[in-house]
Structures are given as C-alpha cells and as structure tokens.
Design goal:
Residues 30-131, 140-240 form the Gnk2-homologous domain. It is a single-pass type I membrane protein. The protein is α+β, with helices and mostly antiparallel strands and 267 residues long. It has a 5-stranded antiparallel sheet, covered by helices on one side. The protein is elongated, with a radius of gyration of 18 Å. 36% of the residues lie in helices and 22% in strands.
C-alpha cells in the first residue's frame, strides 16, 4: 500500500466517524490553506515515511481527546517529531475535520525532513528535532496578506488601520494572559490569536509580539494572517469566528478541556 492510499484511508476513517455520529452537517472547519512550508533537506522515502506514519498514528489519537497533540519517534535511522493544534474557537467536530485536512495535505512535503501547514482552523508540523518550545523562526515565519475580500482605501483604510491595530494589540495581550488563546471583535474587525499548547507563556508573548508587528504591515488588506513558528494571528473585516453558543449538537467544545474564557468579545 503506497502513502497516498494511507492518506485516503485516514481521511475516509475520519469522515465515516463524523457522519456516523451526525456531526458533519453543520461543520465549518476553516480548512482554507493559509500557508505551507516544506523543508528543502530530503531523505529516502523508505526511511522517513514509516516513521511519519507511526508518528501521526499517535498524534491522531491525541487530537480528539484534547484538541491538540504532540509526539516524537526516535529510531536508528531518523528521529521525527510532530505537533497538531486546533484553534480553540473550533468545536470538536470542526477540529477533527480541520486536522484530517491538514493530515492529508502535509505529506506533500515528504520525503522532506520537515514541513508545516497553517490552515485557518488548525496547524500541523513535523521536523527531525524537538521544536515544541520554538516560538519564532527567522527563516520560515511569514505573513499572508492576500485577501479574498479586497483592500481598504480612503477613509475605510484609515479606520481599518486604527481599529485593527487596537484590536491586535488588545487581542495579543489577552491571549498571553489567557493561556495562549483569545478571540475578539471591535467595530467590524474580527481577530483570533492562538499560541501552540507546547509553548510557554513567555514564548507565547514573544511569538505574538512578532506576529502583531508583522501583520500590521498587511494593511490595507481587509484579511491577513501571521504564520509564526509558535503561534497564529488573524484579523479580518469578515466574521470568521465560531461563537461558543453555536457548537455542535452535543455542545462539546475543546474549551471545556482547557477552561478557556470567551468573554473577550469587544463591542
């Protein structure tokens, strides 16, 4: 069985699980691809692919439990580590769908020794070293300023610059104090900040400080994302957030595992 077949079977299993429990009908997993980074160093497929499969088996077991998962595999030929992290406004159903999408897309980087993919609802990365505490990466960190909803101009641009700037500053500060996560909206601009669960509070602050500085360079874009090694930051004039009250039929959110506070929704 080749690796493409394994990817197909994985996605098929996730879809059967969700449909069988009636969880997919109202899902909005935000699986648009914000960024994909594949390492340039490559190795033999016979060396890395079996270890990658073993690694993802463990991560795939942990994500449904808590909304994120990390694991490392050591072998004589290669060591490999992986981290998956859903953004915490996603209900459980959407998290599973987003993770399934990232899990089937990231192998495009193989047999490269590293890869990371940022979707608008989750993040997945693998590498040959323990990167779990990594906050920034001068080589691979970037912003995605492309916007399907266009650019602001004139008075709208002036308003966007001030409003989004204030939102980003408040949002990042709240996320650091709130365990690495916050959502907010202010005068028609919506935002989300998410640090990975393996990053320390200090690391989260460092990551979001960089994300905050760099994403402001995306103005006049109405929609932008900062894709940093240890975090994700987005603002948009379009409401992309999942409100806690919207949930799935079971009302289960990963926030219940983490005791998150969703009250930071500015008027």
């Amino acid at each position: 069985m080749n690796f493409s077949s394994l990817n197909f079977l994985f996605l098929k299993w996730i879809m059967i699980f969700l449909v069988s429990f009636g969880l997919i009908c109202e899902a909005d997993p935000r699986i648009s691809e914000a960024g994909l980074v594949c390492g340039t160093n490559r190795t033999s497929p016979s060396v890395i692919i079996p270890q990658f499969v073993k690694l993802m088996e463990v991560v795939s077991q942990r994500v449904p439990e808590q909304g994120w998962g990390s694991h490392g595999v050591n072998s004589t030929n290669i060591s490999i580590f992986a981290l998956a992290n859903c953004y915490e406004d996603l209900p459980r159903t959407d998290c599973l769908l987003c993770y399934a999408a990232s899990r089937t897309r990231l192998p495009r980087c193989l047999p490269g020794k590293s890869g990371r993919i940022y979707l608008d609802g989750c993040f997945l990365r693998y590498d040959i070293y323990d990167f779990f505490n990594e906050t920034t990466d001068s080589k691979e960190d970037k912003v995605n300023c492309s916007s399907s909803i266009g650019l602001a101009s004139g008075q709208e641009l002036t308003t966007l610059t001030v409003t989004a700037g204030n939102l980003i500053t408040n949002l990042t500060g709240t996320a650091v104090a709130n365990g690495g996560y916050a959502v907010a909206h202010l005068n028609g601009v919506y935002g989300l900040a998410q640090c990975w669960k393996t990053v320390s509070k200090k690391g989260c602050r460092e990551c979001l400080d960089k994300a905050s500085r760099e994403i402001k360079g995306c103005f006049p874009s109405r929609d932008a994302r900062a894709l940093i090694a240890g975090c994700y930051l987005r603002y948009s004039t379009q409401d992309f957030l999942n409100e806690p009250s919207q949930g799935n039929s079971s009302g289960t959110y990963f926030s219940s595992f983490h005791n998150r506070n969703y009250s930071f929704l500015c008027n």
